[in-house]
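Quick review question:
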């Protein structure tokens, strides 16, 4: 023993004879084997030591002598590898030697092969002594390799009492091992002694060559007894005179060592355990105790720690199907009291918990994130990514072993995964409490491993999609979807549908498919959402820190207040750095292209499967969906959880946005089919924001990626027949639908959605097929088209007005803040905040304005006649006249701001685009009359100012300028005629006036319920935005109005009469003048 090591505690008092006999019988029951003779009489025993029988001196239990209290002679064996000695006692040997135990023995001490004349008894004595490093010679303390030997005082005494040869035999080996193991200090495990013995006996067995002449029998018995005593050391340490010690009485620490180390668990040791597991009831508890020990220790570790030995140990154990089954049946396999305890308390939880997203890891890899170099951030992310990939591959291997071992372990691990997803439903709540949920890192690992389990059926031909049974959800599924929002069914309809239990059993593909869907929803998709929220939090905290730092000078003369400020500042900085570190780590995990490629493959299968359920067909990307879908929606589709579609669009949108190169070789036409199908048949999906995400998916798919200027999807959207036939109508339809989403933010939400729709239309507009489709739409589906144009005009009018009215305010605030000024610090801060708000709004509205005007340019060029229909032409004219007045009229001086490009505001370009709209629509006489009749904004001088600006800056071609001058003349003539007509008609009778527009009605109609008479163009224009009677708010369609035929005839006659009278009066005036 080392000098500084505390001496082991004294052996306990020896039990009485009856107690000793009970222990002996229990051991013999455990150790019973073909080479163990029947026991008839026990011998003397010292503390914790039992003897084996002697064949020459059979004894009975009745003749047991009182136990003698003796002191064991304990010697400490060094930690070096063991070389078997040729001698085990002081008695002369016949020259036989045991096998070499050390993998790298000293050549000078290497034993010679046994001679032909060596007796089996001598071999037995020498070999057993070398293997177990024991001796019966009190004067011999080390072997020839200088390994310390344990002197077996009690066994020698027993042999002497029986007058038996003082030699080690396999019949006495049990007593020898018991006495030797009992001599191990109690601060060390018995396995510290027995496992090296096991390795030596296995090397001896493997070294046997040719005819064994009984040697194999000796070694096999030594092997059997060594393993049995290992089991006793773990399960019944009292057999060695020791109190139970959970830290020592387990295989855990030995499994963590390399198998080649002296105390490491070798594969043959595990193979022996597996061979005994059915017949020895102690093996399973020993195994489970070891695995639970691994799990509990790993639960206290992070990726910063040396966690890999734990993974390797579990992998080694799981190579045995019997071990896997035993582990799966352990009560702790799934025992946890809450979602956060799953990763701590269940057996596999700590293995899945290891992640770069653990707080200690993010802090270690991204220390001082505010000042961290971007290159170093990328390097750290890549390092963590590679480490995580290796870890997840190990987890997948372990999981596959559970799945493939048999139905029991397969069902247990599927139950465990289901327990995880079902316990984390609140992860998708608006305000979730992380303390009540599993961690991001844990759930990300679960998601990735389930993706891996799906691998065998994720082929690119979708050949196994048919095996995914939607009826799984009606067979008491593991995945709980009861509280989930359904695609298009309310709670009562869903409950009624799932109340009927489907016949049959679900296959493994269906089980793992729905588990993986849920894992994506609560795992990776929740983490994606968290990353977005984290960006907002970081921005808020950054602004807060800047604000507090700006306050420092105020407290320069107040040490106490300055100290409070510094304390708060440190707290905010700490939180900010924590958020930033976590963000960098999360990006490292989520931007893993290998992981996301597998996720994408899964989502492609989900897409094809979902289209099959909706269309009730065997759809694959090489086939076409027949649109529109059936008006009768399949119940199986309606009652699916909403997250089925949400997972698809969320995953694709994330990849499109952050790592689009993953999509280049992985995406097919199925994603375009999905978007177009459910935008065309939008009634299939209840949630308008989920439908909006389909638009976002198309929008992100048109972002330029490397050499693809139209993005990943752009070329397919432009060129595929399915898109050519249905995409434009689908986008226009949803443009109309988002006018009303039902949310309190619907007014502002629609602009963002429509902005994305504009971007997609701009991408595909190069194909003339879409221009032809738009023309066809305006002729065959006029009401639909007019609603679309009306909303486009509404948006254009609103965003233009909002954007252009912000610039005068920005102009004034910039002038007020421009030095020198007399503002106090508080006033200046208030003005700056007000300016920042106005600038942000102006930037947003100008972005929308530019896109809306761009759409109007495209559409008016293709469909000028459609934009000049009576129902909308006056609104179009009013919008363009008002904008022209703002851009070039007296108010234009207030539009001058510092750095207008900052707000995407280019007045000259905007003016040029509106001139183009004028030219596009100028072919219509209706438009000419509407512009001239715009009493609010039509001002001939505005047109002249526009001409000067266009010429000065060469904004339009000479051809366009000539057309513009001609158009101005036509406006002037039309205005003169308008004024003449107004003068000719004089006072219009009230019954002939439109009650809303106060103009002479041309085509009066009667509203069915309110009985109000109104011009058809007025009510039609109103119904484009609001399907209600404007006078009593009752529902109304244009088909419901009644023609006022008689009134129309009266108006026509009255107008003709008044025009004739006016003409006659002018003729009379002309004659009078001529005569005069």
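Suggested answer, residue by residue:
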């Amino acid at each position: 023993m080392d000098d500084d090591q505390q001496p082991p505690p004294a052996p306990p008092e020896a039990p009485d004879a009856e107690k000793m006999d009970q222990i002996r019988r229990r051991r013999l029951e455990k150790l019973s084997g073909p080479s163990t003779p029947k026991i008839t009489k026990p011998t003397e025993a010292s503390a914790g030591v039992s003897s084996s029988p002697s064949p020459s001196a059979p004894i009975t239990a009745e003749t047991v002598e009182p136990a003698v209290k003796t002191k064991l002679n304990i010697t400490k064996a060094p930690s070096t590898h063991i070389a078997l000695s040729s001698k085990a006692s002081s008695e002369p040997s016949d020259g036989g030697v045991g096998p070499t135990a050390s993998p790298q023995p000293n050549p000078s001490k290497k034993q010679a092969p046994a001679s032909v004349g060596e007796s089996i008894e001598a071999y037995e004595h020498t070999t057993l002594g070398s293997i177990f490093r024991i001796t019966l010679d009190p004067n011999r303390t080390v072997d020839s390799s200088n390994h310390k030997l344990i002197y077996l005082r009690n066994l020698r005494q027993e042999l002497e009492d029986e007058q038996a040869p003082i030699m080690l035999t396999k019949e006495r080996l049990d007593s020898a091992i018991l006495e030797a193991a009992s001599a191990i200090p109690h601060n060390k495990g018995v396995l510290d002694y027995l496992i090296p013995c096991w390795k030596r006996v296995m090397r001896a067995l493997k070294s046997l060559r040719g005819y064994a002449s009984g040697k194999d029998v000796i070694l096999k018995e030594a092997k059997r007894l060594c393993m049995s005593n290992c089991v006793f050391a773990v399960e019944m340490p009292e057999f060695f005179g020791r109190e139970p010690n959970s830290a020592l009485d387990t295989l855990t620490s030995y499994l963590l060592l390399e198998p080649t180390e002296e105390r490491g668990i070798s594969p043959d040791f595990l193979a022996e355990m597996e061979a005994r597991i059915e017949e020895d009831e102690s093996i399973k508890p020993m195994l489970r105790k070891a695995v639970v020990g691994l799990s509990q220790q790993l639960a206290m570790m992070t990726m910063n720690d040396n966690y890999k030995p734990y993974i390797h140990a579990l992998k080694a154990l799981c190579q045995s199907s019997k071990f896997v089954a035993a582990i799966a049946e352990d009560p702790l396999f799934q025992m946890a009291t809450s979602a956060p305890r799953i990763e701590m308390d269940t057996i596999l939880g700590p293995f899945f918990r290891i992640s770069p997203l653990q707080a200690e890891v993010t802090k270690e890899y991204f220390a001082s994130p505010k000042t961290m170099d971007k290159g170093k951030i990328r390097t750290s992310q890549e390092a963590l990514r590679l480490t995580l990939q290796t870890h997840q591959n190990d987890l997948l291997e372990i999981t596959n072993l559970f799945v493939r071992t048999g139905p029991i372990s397969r069902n247990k691990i599927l139950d465990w995964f289901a327990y995880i997803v079902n316990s984390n439903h609140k992860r998708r709540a608006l305000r979730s409490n992380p303390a009540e949920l599993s961690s991001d890192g844990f759930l990300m690992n679960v998601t990735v491993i389930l993706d891996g389990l799906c691998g065998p059926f994720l082929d690119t031909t979708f050949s196994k999609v048919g095996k995914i049974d939607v009826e799984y959800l009606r067979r008491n599924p593991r995945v709980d979807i009861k509280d989930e929002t359904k695609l298009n069914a309310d709670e009562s309809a869903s409950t009624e549908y799932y109340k009927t239990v489907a016949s049959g059993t679900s296959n493994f593909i269906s089980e793992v498919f729905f588990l993986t869907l849920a894992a994506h929803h609560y795992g990776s998709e929740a983490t994606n959402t968290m990353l977005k929220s984290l960006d907002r939090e970081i921005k808020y905290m950054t602004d807060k820190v800047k604000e507090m730092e700006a306050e420092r000078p105020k407290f320069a003369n107040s040490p106490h207040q300055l100290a409070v400020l510094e304390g708060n500042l440190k707290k905010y900085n700490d939180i900010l750095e924590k958020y930033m570190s976590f963000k960098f780590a999360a990006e490292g995990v989520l931007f893993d292209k290998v992981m996301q490629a597998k996720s994408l493959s899964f989502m492609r299968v989900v897409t094809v499967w979902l289209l099959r359920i909706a269309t009730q067909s065997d759809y694959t990307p090489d086939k076409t969906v027949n649109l529109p879908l059936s008006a009768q929606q399949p119940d199986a589709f309606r009652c699916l959880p909403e997250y089925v579609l949400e997972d698809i669009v969320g995953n694709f949108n994330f990849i499109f946005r952050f790592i689009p190169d993953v999509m280049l070789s992985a995406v097919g036409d199925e994603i375009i089919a999905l978007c177009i199908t459910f935008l065309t048949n939008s009634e299939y999906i209840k949630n308008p924001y989920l439908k909006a995400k389909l638009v976002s998916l198309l929008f992100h798919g048109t972002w330029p990626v490397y050499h693809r200027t139209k993005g990943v999807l752009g070329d397919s959207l432009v060129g595929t027949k399915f898109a050519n036939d249905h995409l434009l109508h689908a986008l226009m339809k949803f443009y109309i639908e988002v006018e009303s989403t039902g949310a309190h933010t619907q007014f502002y939400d629609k602009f963002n959605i429509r902005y994305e729709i504009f971007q997609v239309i701009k991408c595909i507009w190069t194909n003339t097929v879409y221009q032809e489709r738009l023309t066809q739409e305006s002729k065959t589906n006029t009401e639909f088209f007019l609603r679309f144009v009306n909303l486009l005009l509404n948006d254009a009018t609103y965003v233009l007005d909002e954007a252009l009215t912000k610039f005068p305010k920005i102009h004034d605030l910039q002038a007020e803040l421009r030095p020198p000024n007399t503002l106090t610090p508080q006033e200046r801060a208030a003005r700056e905040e007000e300016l920042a708000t106005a600038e942000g709004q102006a930037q947003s509205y100008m972005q929308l304005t530019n896109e809306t005007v761009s759409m109007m340019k495209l559409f008016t060029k293709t469909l000028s006649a459609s934009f000049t229909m009576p129902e909308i032409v006056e609104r179009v004219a009013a919008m363009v006249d008002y904008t022209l007045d703002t851009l070039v009229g007296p108010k234009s001086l207030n539009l001058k701001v510092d750095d207008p490009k900052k707000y995407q505001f280019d007045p000259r370009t905007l003016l040029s685009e509106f001139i183009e709209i004028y030219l596009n629509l100028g072919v219509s006489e209706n438009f000419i009359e509407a512009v001239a009749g715009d009493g609010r904004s039509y001002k001939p001088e505005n047109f002249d100012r526009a001409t000067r600006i266009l010429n000065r800056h060469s904004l339009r071609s000479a051809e366009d300028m000539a057309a513009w001058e001609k158009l101005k003349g036509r406006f002037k003539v039309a205005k003169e005629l308008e004024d003449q007509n107004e003068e000719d008609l004089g006072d219009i009778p009230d019954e002939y006036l439109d009650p809303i527009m106060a103009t002479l009605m041309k085509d009066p109609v009667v509203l069915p319920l309110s009985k109000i008479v109104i011009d058809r163009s007025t009510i039609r224009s109103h119904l484009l935005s609001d399907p209600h009677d404007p006078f009593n708010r009752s529902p109304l369609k244009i088909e419901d109005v009644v023609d006022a035929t008689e009134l129309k005839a009266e108006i026509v006659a009255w107008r003709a009469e008044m025009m004739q009278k006016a003409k006659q009066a002018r003729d009379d005036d002309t004659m009078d003048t001529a005569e005069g």
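Why it works: The domain at 992-1021+1031-1072 is CATH 3.30.40.10 (Herpes Virus-1). The chain has a mean pLDDT of 85.
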